[in-house]
Amino acid sequence: MSEVEANTGGGGKEQDRFLPVANIGLIMRRAVPENGKIARDARESIQECVSEFISFITSEASDKCVKERRKTINDNDIIWSLGTLGFEEYVEPLKIYLNNYREEQMVAEKERELEEEEAQKSPSKIVADSLSQISRSSTFLPNIGVCLNASNLCGGTF
Question: Matching InterPro entries, A to Z (predicted)?
Fold first, then answer.
């Protein structure tokens, strides 16, 4: 067995079990002054540490799922494993982050649904709805109207 196979648990390339070093470098660069540099071996060391940390947390969550006879690791399993393995100070911030993320995803999904509904409307209905919204807007000036031309829309006064 080669050294690479021994380091990866017997199968595959070592780099296949690590996060991409370019992504690690981008994250690290956020914490370094603009004119600062990060050595390649530093990026690679962090790459290995981060990958090991993820494997460590995931392994604990996986063990929990096996004991509970489940096949899918979910976010609650990861949060549980963080607490179990001594990273309690990350549990509450991660819960808050996940709740905020879920709320943002729900809002984005509703916006997509509204956009899809809007796209399915006929062009004349879209124009009528837009004009209606403009007229209800607090920035609408009563002496400015909209003239519709067969080839384009233009602003005009009445």
Answer: CBFA_NFYB_domain (IPR003958), Histone-fold (IPR009072), Transc_fact_NFYB/HAP3 (IPR027113), Transcrpt_fac_NFYB/HAP3_CS (IPR003956)
Which amino acid is located at 155 in the chain? Answer: G
- Distance separating alpha carbons of residues 74 and 142, to the nearest angstrom: 55
The overall pTM is greater than 0.85: no
Length of the chain (residues)? 158
Tell me the backbone φ, ψ of residue 155, rounded to 5 degrees: -80, 145
Query: Domain map of the chain by residue range?
Result: 1-86, 87-120, 123-158
Q: Where are the beta strands (DSSP E) in the chain?
A: 144-148, 153-157
Chain segment 122-152, per-residue pLDDT in tens: 666 667 777 777 766 555 444 444 444 444 4
CATH number of 1-86: 1.10.20.10
**Torsion of the alpha carbons at 40, 41, 45 and 47, rounded to the nearest 10:** 20
Tokens standing for residue 130: 């837009």
pLDDT for residue 45 is more than 60: yes
3-class DSSP state for residue 58?
A: helix
- Integer Cα distance of 19 and 41 in angstroms: 15
